[in-house]
Amino acid sequence: MNSKNMKKMIGQNSIWLVLLAMCAVLTISTRTFLTAQNFMNILTTESIIGIIAVGVMWCILSKGIDLSPGSVVALTSCISASLAQQ
Fold first, then answer.
1. Do residues 60 and 83 share a domain?
2. pLDDT at residue 10, rounded to an integer
3. What is the DSSP string of 28-75?
4. From CA 34, how far away is CA 86, in angstroms rounded?
5. In the chain, fewer beta carbons within 10 Å around the N or the C end?
6. What are the residues whose beta carbons fall under 8 Å from the beta carbon of 52, sequence distance 6 or more?
7. Residue 11's pLDDT is what?
8. Distance between CA atoms of 35 and 39, rounded to whole angstroms?
9. Mean pLDDT, consecutive 10-residue segments, the chain of 86 residues?
10. Are residues 14 and 39 in the same domain?
11. Quick one: which H or E segment has residue 19?
């Protein structure tokens, strides 16, 4: 593999390399990173963002840009925080 192909491969996969490096650093620095509980916490947290992303994706695919999901998330967060205080 010559250097041109190597640079191209690294350029195309750089996000995966960064993710792999972050996982390696976190695994070495903390004992609780590679646990089932942490994995479930990450999935639970990111599933909300994934659901919102699917909704926005359909709007963008239908050639309409809708910026309201960000506003809805902000309003929902404010209402949830105020209800949690009571």
1. yes
2. 86
3. HH-SSTTSHHHHHHHHHHHHHHHHHHHHHHHHHHTT----HHHHHHHH
4. 36
5. C
6. 69, 73
7. 87
8. 6
9. 84 91 93 91 89 83 76 87 88
10. no
11. helix 14-29
Alpha carbon distance 65, 59 (integer Å) = 6
Q: How many domains does the chain have?
A: 2
Residues 85 and 45 in one domain: yes
The rounded distance, in Å, linking the Cα atoms of 71 and 78 is 11
The answer on 25 and 54 residing in a single domain is no
Identify the domain containing residue 77 by its residue range: 35-86
Statement to judge: residues 50 and 84 lie in one domain: yes
Q: Based on the domain organization, do 51 and 23 belong to the same domain?
A: no
Residue 37: the pLDDT is 94
Residues 27 and 47 placed together within one structural domain of the fold: no
Q: Which residues contact 73 (CB under 8 A, 6 or more apart)?
A: 52
